[in-house]
Specification:
The protein is α/β, with parallel strands linked by helices. The protein has 13 helices and 12 strands. Helix 1 packs parallel to helix 13. Bound molecules: 2-keto-D-gluconic acid. InterPro entries: D-isomer_2-hydroxyacid_DH, D-isomer_2_OHA_DH_cat_dom, D-isomer_DH_CS, D-isomer_DH_CS1, D-isomer_DH_NAD-bd, NAD(P)-bd_dom_sf.
Length: 327
């Protein structure tokens, strides 16, 4: 169409992205640093041709029911799409896109940082060093556990899982993974990765578990209390995917009882709420959902959103179209 699409950004994005969006589209910005209210979201879907939400906007069936005829595209700024009801969007003929690929390496870096931080007690060490209470080196001071030679179990061997596996190999970890199906034999050979059809069995045999699957109905609370209990008491859990994949309450209790040795978490079931049990534990490292938070990554995510909107508005299939069946 010749007309510029009316695009609503629900959150403040990097300046250069906003500037280009305003040049290319009839763009409404959110000038504040807080999410749009529910009413403002309703207004947006009633009037915009394209909505650009982020992970903090719940685009559920109730909201989509308010969508006007003109809303054709939800071009999400982010890779996970669990905040969008894909079936509801589809039933209204609304296309959904995301920004995969450009945050893979950054997220894998953060996963690796957590894998190192928890067994080696980096956050605790930092707190001690700052506190003024450090009495100097001692042979038994702040001992953690060795990374090299341990077994890493990756749940969800997609783009991010593979990027984690590559890094982990450099740290001497052996790679185990659970996925709906094995990855390509060449990839498996290259990573010397062992496929576990049974998640339960893998959980009981690895030293570090990393959650790298998307949150879907099939992975909701995948790490239930029962499954978490299968982990060895010497094992660690790292999650930079989605909090809802793990039973957070059970995790807190198992960590508190030292039935799980420690955890590194970047995501939570009800962000920004972080259960007090977790916040009070010493054997956890908690991050405020910053797995993909690099300026380079945000700019590339913005580029992807722009390309998706442009391609779609020009009448073509956008490169990052999300189909429910592929999740
Ligand atoms: C982003 C994320 O912060 O992409 C995702 O799935 O969780 C994060 O990388 C978020 O998506 C921004 O919408």
């Amino acid at each position: 169409s010749q007309r510029k699409p009316k695009v609503v950004l629900t959150r403040k994005l990097p300046d250069s992205i906003e500037t280009r969006m305003r040049e290319l589209f009839d763009t409404t910005l959110n000038e504040t640093d807080v999410a749009l209210s529910h009413d403002a979201l309703i207004e947006a879907v009633k009037t915009a041709d394209v909505l650009v939400p982020t992970v903090t906007d719940k685009i559920d069936a109730d909201l989509i029911a308010y969508a006007g005829e003109q809303l054709r595209l939800i071009a999400s700024f982010g890779t996970g799409v669990d905040h969008i009801d894909l079936a509801a969007a589809k039933s209204r003929g609304i296309t959904v896109t995301n920004t995969p690929g450009v945050l893979t390496e950054d997220t894998a870096d953060m996963v690796m940082a957590l894998i190192l931080a928890v067994p080696r007690r980096i956050a605790e060490g930092d707190a001690l060093a700052r506190s003024g209470k450090w009495h100097g080196w001692s042979p038994t001071g702040m001992l953690g556990h060795r990374i090299n030679g341990k077994r890493l179990g990756i749940i969800g061997m997609g783009r991010i899982g593979e990027a984690v596996a590559r890094r982990a190999r450099g740290f001497g970890l052996s790679i185990h993974y659970h996925n709906r199906k094995p990855v390509h034999p060449e990839t498996e050979a290259e990573l010397e990765a062992t496929y576990w059809d049974s998640l339960d069995q893998m959980l009981s045999r690895v030293d570090i578990v990393s959650v790298n699957c998307p949150h879907t109905p099939a992975t909701h609370m995948l790490l239930s209390r029962e499954r978490l209990s299968r982990m060895q008491s010497s094992a660690y859990l790292v999650n930079a995917s989605r909090g809802e994949v793990v039973d957070e309450q059970a995790l807190g209790e198992l960590l508190d009882a030292r039935d799980i040795a420690g955890a590194g978490l970047d995501v939570y079931a009800n962000e920004p709420h972080i259960p007090e049990t977790l916040r009070n534990l010493k054997n956890v490292v908690l991050l405020p959902h910053i797995g993909s938070a690099t300026i380079e990554g945000r700019l590339e995510m913005g580029d992807k959103v722009i390309i998706n909107v442009q391609t779609f508005w020009d009448g073509h299939s956008p490169p990052d179209r999300v189909i429910e069946a592929m999740l």
